[in-house]
Amino acid sequence: MTEPLDLARLQRRLAEFAAARNWQPYHTPKNLAAALSVEAAELVEIFQWLTPEESSRVMDDPERAHRVTDEVADVLAYLLQFCEVLDIDPLTALAAKIDRNEHRFPRPESEDRD
Description:
Blueprint: H1 7-20, H2 29-47, H3 52-56, H4 62-86, H5 90-104
Helix pairs in contact: 1-4, 2-4
């Protein structure tokens, strides 16, 4: 039976993959941030000349859907490796950022329209 996926397990798999290939010396914060940026740019490239309507339907095209999915995986892989190297819990970081944004950008007051 396959175990459910979670970020910690995926981070361990990425670390084991890199260790088996002796890639840890290259997995510095600077290099991982650069790789993350490159992969994010490759994701953007898929959408570069699409109209808003075309971009909304990108997953309807199997070839483009495969490319989008692969680039999302690459972005997430580098982000998780970056977090591992700097000992950042990405879920805790995201929760804290959402909390700060809720204070910075309060919900608009609802207007009565009776």
